[in-house]
Amino acid sequence: MIDNRSTSTLLSLGIILAALYFARVVFVPLALAVLLAFLLGPLVTRLRHWGLGRVPSALIIVVLSFMIVAIVAGGTGGSLFNLNPLRGGQTMTAAITVT
Question: Full-prediction pTM beyond 0.70?
Answer without folding.
Answer: no
